[in-house]
Amino acid sequence: MSRFSKRGKKSTGQINTASLPDIVFMLLFFFMTTTVMREVNLMITVKVPDATEARKLEKKSLVSYIYIGQPLRSFQQMFGTEPRIQLNDQFRDVADIQDFIAQERDAMDENDRNKMTVSLKIDSDTRMGTVIDVKQSLRRAQALKISYSARKVDEL
Amino acid sequence: MGKKELSPINAGSMADIAFLLLIFFLITTTMDVDTGLQRRLPRLPDEDQQEETSDKIKERNVFVVLINKHDELLVENKPMDIHQLRQNAREFIANPNNVENLPEKEIKELPFFGSVYITKNPVISLRNDRGTSYGMYLRVQNELVAAKQELRDEISILQFGEKFKDLTEDQSDAVKHYYPSVLSEAEPKNIGGK
Q: What ipTM does the predicted assembly reach?
């Protein structure tokens, strides 16, 4: 007993916390570098469908996003409840997609332009009519690499 | 004398500051990796070219999948449940028993495989109504992609003892020739309203 208490006394000396900031900084830098700040404020609800065959999209910088879904509650008064297209931070029409693609392409590095992928984030309740229109205008804009955004699941 | 001035700075608060920043980044981080079905849209066809190609493909080589606005499937003129689609698509792509109304087969020379007896060029044509829900459309696409992927995996394991995604580039090229990517995004026809 006496031996036990003796030992305890000895180890109550202060823990050296000098390395704690280092560890925390390391974590901090990890998160700082991996963080991708959300670029767009979604003004629509998008619940993408599930798929077992979904693949990871490589290289975020080569990906442009098109969102389609029902406007959020606060926008419904202005834009109604029909699914709408959102490009960057605005509601847009199908006709604007070609311009949007051209813009995105211009912003890219010249060598990467043909690797450009358009990720379609579409709510699963959207009717295909809208999607067809979008796809057609993508074809017109020569943006042929697309990805139907879906959540990866193991089983449907 | 000089030694005394070098007393350590109190770094205790450093950890607090770093923690604060850390927590900020933890919260703002959206680690959403974007996943999806990657597809390639066909080029917009020239007017006259379109006619030509549609004639060339024989009916037995095409697997027609229609989805109506109630999200019901019509596969090769027969209503079908989505759960049977994968199996049917697999049979269509591979045509293992060389059935009359499934795609033609031919003998082809492939690296690694030697000469194999495979389907010539099967095409799956997916068409939908404007009123079809996107969820259903993607589900069907997923099934069709899965059918192809399963076949590729099977043949890869048989030949190389590894799954398709673990093959080397040459090997996976050969497998891709064995079971080509067959899904065609059909030229949309505007059938049906909303």
A: 0.74
